[in-house]
Amino acid sequence: MKVLVVGGGGREHALCWKIGQSPLVAKVYCAPGNAGTALVAENVDIAAEDIKGLVAFAKSNGVGLVVVGPEAPLCMGIVDEMKKVGIRCFGPNKAAAEIEGSKLYARELCRRHRIPSPQFWSFEDAHGARAFLDMREDGPIVVKASGLAAGKGVTVCKKNEEARAAVAECLERRRFGDAGSTVVLEEFLEGQELSVMTLTDGKTIVPFEPARDHKAVFDGDKGPNTGGMGAVTPVHVQGRAMTQIENQVVFPTVHAMNRENRPYQGFLYSGLMLTPQGPRVLEYNCRLGDPETEPLLMRLASDLVPLLIATCDEKLEEQQAPKWDPRPCVTVVACSGGYPGDYKKGVPIFGLDRVKSGPDLQVFHAGTAKKGGDVVTAGGRVLAVTAMGKDVEDARKRCYEALALIEFDGMHYRKDIGARA
Ligand code: AMP
Ligand code: GLY
Q: What are the b/e assignments for 11-32, b being 16+ CB within 10 Å?
């Protein structure tokens, strides 16, 4: 079978790497891919949002399975368009992807179906939001652009003053365009965060092992949020937390989507805050997380492809539960100088060939490109160095040893990924 992976980040490199190992797969294409996916797949120069182009390519190249990495094409309806021409496409359809595409929809879904989540208030005009903040006791609050804002639409505010500024950025200065035309204000929650990715065809629900992202740019969770600076899996949650998460969040969410006539198929990512009162939903994603996917797929001992096909064909119940390598796995993301603010592109990357990669050590590429014979930077998050080890400390050590062999001007990464695990 020929498989087309849509996207061009670290998640997609890991997907191509894993999918290419399947005996069911004869060829992997990646659109648009990066310099890393070119090592394990054939890159196709079509943007992830060019749905017409992707459908035409899949049709004329006999692609048997399309696997969509990022949220934008899912929210635009790529699954619906592929299905129209009879091509199996893994991921939620447009209606179901709204669980990520509209934070307001996700919050209302939780409210309607009593899925534990923070209190929230939504506004379309800045006066209303300001009047609300004026009435409220001063203190922490979270301001979110409701639509897709490439992971930059959330501001965690310590004071109402800061929240007023964030509201103005969204609703008045239109920093996120239409994605910020509705703002959701949320109760601030404290606790440990956890990412739980679940595979579902709408009937059978298979939670994957939990992972933890590290969102802040600097060590000790300091500085502004990023797309994710590193991840670790598995994460040992205390006592009955995992059962609570499944019973109070994951299963009810899949059932709620059925009841709302938006049956969900694909990976459902629940971003959770583990509070003393139990798990609370911070967000849903309609796809795998990045960088959580990189260590998760390295630990996945089963073939991923039959699971993806069975999900598309609504036959997940016939599949065996996935098997996991018991060894912990860590991913450390190396970023461009200045990220998550402005950064340069096209900076040459040295030392990639010095890393001895294998099944338990990979340098997954995120924002990279080929320029002549060189690999150069092409994004904020550049590389996702991923390693398994006999324990988390060992996995960390192997990541940082590999990173020490690589250099590019401005390169920075967190030194404490997985240190708390
Ligand atoms: P989101 O994209 O909605 O997951 O938000 C990005 C990050 O903002 C999360 O990973 C949390 O670190 C933080 N965050 C989001 N919502 C809340 C909340 N209600 N309380 C505290 N922190 C939050
Ligand atoms: N790492 C979080 C995300 O993919 O949204």
A: bbbbbbbbbbebeebeebbbbb
